[in-house]
Amino acid sequence: METRLSTGIEGLDRMLNGGLLPGRAYLVKGAPGTGKTTLAMHFAMAGVSRGESVMYITLEESAETLRTDMTRLGFNLNDPHLTIIDATPIGDNYVFMDTFFDSFAKGFDKMVSAIKDELRTRRYTRIVIDPITMVKLTSTDEIEYRRLFLSFLKSMHKRGITLVMTSEVEKTDVEEYLVSGIIELKSFDLEGELVRGIRITKLRGSGFDTAIRPYVISDGGIVVFTDKILTIPSSFKT
Ligand SMILES: Nc1ncnc2c1ncn2[C@@H]1O[C@H](COP(=O)(O)OP(=O)(O)OP(=O)(O)O)[C@@H](O)[C@H]1O
Ligand SMILES: [Mg+2]
Fold it and tell me: What is the CATH number of domain 10-185?
């Protein structure tokens, strides 16, 4: 069987028929607070635990809060195999945010060249961009965005790097056509209680579990229950 990469979440690996295909790009979509960062960190730390070098680019949450929040969930972010790049406006490393109001192309190019610089220092195998939405916001030209995004995915693919990007966008967006897989996180109001459901909507080159499975976020991070299906009355959908 071909190699699959663990996401660090057992139930999600099962939904993915064993895990992610290496060298490809994946999108984790969800509304605020659904667990996108937590899922991305599971993926990052699964690589770290195998001795891989992992780059985690944080664009909204400062490295400091990310550390605090994720340490609370039981992740050890001090592992030398993990490089956290703080690309928030107040971060130490202004990857591209200083050009936020410039053209998108300049901003995105800057981020990509910063990533490539870092790639020269180590052989990274996994990269997380959390969230890609921030990059997209600098875009004024849709065609240029597509071109840059695709060439970025290609250059990561060439290096055998598996990419996980988070996205806050609810509606279908251009990235969804370009990535190899999409994982959706949703929360529902079920009789006054918040319930969470995870679903795979796309996975190129593989079969996958098409059901919405319930998941929880607790002290150990995300747990997906693949033996249960989440049935939500349509009137409860949020
Ligand atoms: N120990 C815990 N027990 C239960 N829930 C927790 C725990 N730690 C964090 N959470 C929940 O996890 C969620 C935050 O997850 P995360 O930051 O990964 O979401 P996100 O989708 O990245 O959010 P955002 O859109 O704001 O970036 C919150 O709703 C929080 O309440
Ligand atoms: Mg987040």
Answer: 3.40.50.300
Written as tens digits, the pLDDT of the chain (238 aa) is 579 999 999 999 999 999 999 999 999 999 999 999 999 999 999 999 999 999 999 988 989 999 999 999 999 999 999 999 888 766 554 444 444 333 334 567 778 888 998 999 999 999 999 999 877 776 678 888 889 899 999 999 999 999 999 998 777 788 899 999 999 999 998 889 999 999 999 999 999 999 999 999 999 999 999 999 998 766 544 4
Atom of ligand 1 nearest to the CA of 32: 25
Q: For residue 18, report the distance from its CA to the centre of ligand 2, in Å.
A: 25
Closest atom of ligand 1 to 131 CA is 27
Angle (CA) 34-136-223 rounded to 5° is 20
Q: Residue 196 pairs with which residues in a beta bridge?
A: 187
Ligand nearest to the Cα of 216, by number: 1
Domain ranges of the chain: 10-185
**Is the pTM above the cut of 0.90?**
yes
Q: How far is CA 34 from CA 16, 31, 37, 183, 205, in A?
A: 19, 6, 9, 12, 27
User: Distance (Å, rounded) from C-alpha 211 to C-alpha 230?
Assistant: 8
What distance lies between CA 53 and its chain's CA centroid? 16
CA distance 133 to 32: 12
